[in-house]
Design a protein that fits this description.
The protein is built from eleven helices and 16 strands. It is α/β, with parallel strands linked by helices. A hairpin with a 5-residue loop joins strand 13 and strand 14. The longest helix has 22 residues. The termini are far apart. The relative contact order is 0.12. It binds FE(8)-S(7) cluster (CLF) and iron/sulfur cluster. Iron/sulfur cluster binds next to strand 2. FE(8)-S(7) cluster (CLF) binds next to strand 1, strand 3 and strand 4.
């Protein structure tokens, strides 16, 4: 690829070019659930904090499903230019990543492929990515000093064994730097994401920037820590916007581009940065095959009841106009979810409607309805959500759940 062709791609990449993010869209394909390291800010039951805000990704797709979905999105979002793979684990720890890139490149050669990785497996895969047509790589690097790195990473899995402490950090950092070198030598455009972690690496970040600039990184992106429940860093404070701006200005003075419009998007984000449309394209709306959503978060201790009056279970799953989400422990109403009922009862529109109901219920342990069709029943079952078919009262259902009458 010539330099001018590469410049053309950069000008249309919403993350690499400041002006492009107002004109062009990106789509993430969540095909990579496994990870080969443990960052102390990441709860893997949720999402990859490298590139996403914490929360469940609504589904993990197979390579075939991902490629099919690209076609659907492309037909509705003509501004789509970039296809990214950014989790929910590490793309290079999942063979599905490579299968997906190959499939998408074959069907849609006009789209730009982009990868975001922790870098552990990058030296071994840089050439493979290049040969598959990938030209944009992001490496998340939170330290170049193993002592700092040992505070950021819990463990690293390499050569079939799990290592920790300084040994793990040293190995990860050396692989990240070597991966960066190889990508630069191949002519790829590399962005370095750095998570700004107060009390851990803030003062060290200019050293990271100096080092990656020297090797040839194109830009750096300094993301604020999002303290996620259940992680080692859950008790840390996120940096303030002022602290972050000050650090970005300082790093900009080192002579490298600093990305300032990152939205810390989900691993399944779709659309323009800052306007996520992924829910419009949730599972059933894109697939001809049956939906296979995989929940990465915990089910909450609640029952979602299809009810018109908040007292009786009196509606079926597909025709309910509202669901009452009730806490199983103390019976209090957590929220009432109103459902748009103006949908057809069959076909793709129906599947899309069912998927949007399921998403809006936010993973209760039970769903209680008067009736339910095979499609939503199977989908909920696949997500580990128990379905209760009954026409009793909400209080009665709660009592029976608590006394174990309904087995999982
Ligand atoms: Fe996705 Fe990342 Fe590619 Fe962009 S996101 S893999 S480089 S196409 Fe962009 Fe989102 Fe920030 Fe990432 S706004 S989190 S920097
Ligand atoms: Fe989590 Fe991503 Fe770190 Fe893996 S690389 S532990 S998925 S933040």
């Amino acid at each position: 690829m010539t330099d001018s062709a590469l410049s053309g791609l950069i000008a249309e990449h919403p993350c690499y070019d400041d002006a492009a993010h107002k004109k062009f869209a990106r789509m993430h394909l969540p095909v990579a659930p496994r990870c080969n390291i443990q960052c102390n800010y990441c709860n893997r039951k949720y999402d990859c904090s490298n590139e996403s805000r914490p929360g469940v990704t609504s589904e993990v797709l197979s390579p075939q499903e991902a490629a099919d979905k690209v076609g659907v999105v492309l037909s509705k979002i003509p501004e789509l230019k970039v296809i990214g793979i950014a989790g929910p684990g590490d793309p290079l720890a999942n063979e599905a990543t490579f299968e997906t890139i190959a499939l998408v490149r074959e069907r849609y050669p006009q789209l730009t492929m982009c990868i975001s990785t922790n870098g552990l497996a990058l030296p071994d895969n840089a050439k493979r990515l290049y040969d598959l047509g990938v030209r944009f790589v992001t490496i998340t690097m939170n330290a170049v000093d193993p002592e700092v790195g040992s505070k950021v990473y819990g463990h690293v899995i390499a050569d079939g064994r799990s290592i920790s402490g300084m040994e793990a950090a040293s190995l990860l950092i050396s692989r990240q730097l070597e991966g960066l070198r190889r990508c630069v030598d191949l002519g790829m455009v590399v962005k370095i994401n750095i998570v700004m972690i107060p009390g851990i690496n803030v003062d060290h970040i200019p050293d990271i920037v100096r080092k990656v600039k020297e090797i040839g990184a194109y830009t750096v992106n300094i993301l604020p820590l999002i303290p996620v429940a259940g992680t080692k860093f859950e008790g840390l404070d996120a940096p303030t916007p002022e602290m972050r701006k000050h650090l970005m200005d300082e790093c900009g003075d080192l002579g490298i581009r600093v990305m300032r419009h990152c939205k810390q998007c989900r691993a399944d984000a779709i659309g323009m940065l800052g306007n996520d449309r992924s829910s419009e394209f949730a599972c059933g709306s894109c697939r001809t095959a049956e939906a296979r959503p995989i929940l990465l978060g915990d089910l909450r201790d609640a029952v979602a009841v299809a009810s018109d009056d908040g007292v009786n279970i009196n509606r079926g799953f597909g025709n309910a106009s509202s669901f009452y989400i009730v806490d199983i422990g103390d019976g209090h109403l957590i929220e009432k979810v109103d459902v748009d009922t103006g949908h057809s009862v069959a076909g793709q529109d129906h599947k899309s409607h069912i998927s949007s109901i399921i998403t809006s219920l936010k993973s209760p342990r039970y769903v209680a309805v008067t009736e339910i069709g095979p499609y939503p029943s199977k989908t909920l079952d696949g997500m580990g959500i128990n379905v209760i078919v009954t026409d009793t009262t909400i209080d009665d259902v709660l009592r029976r759940i608590r006394d174990g009458s309904y087995k999982s």
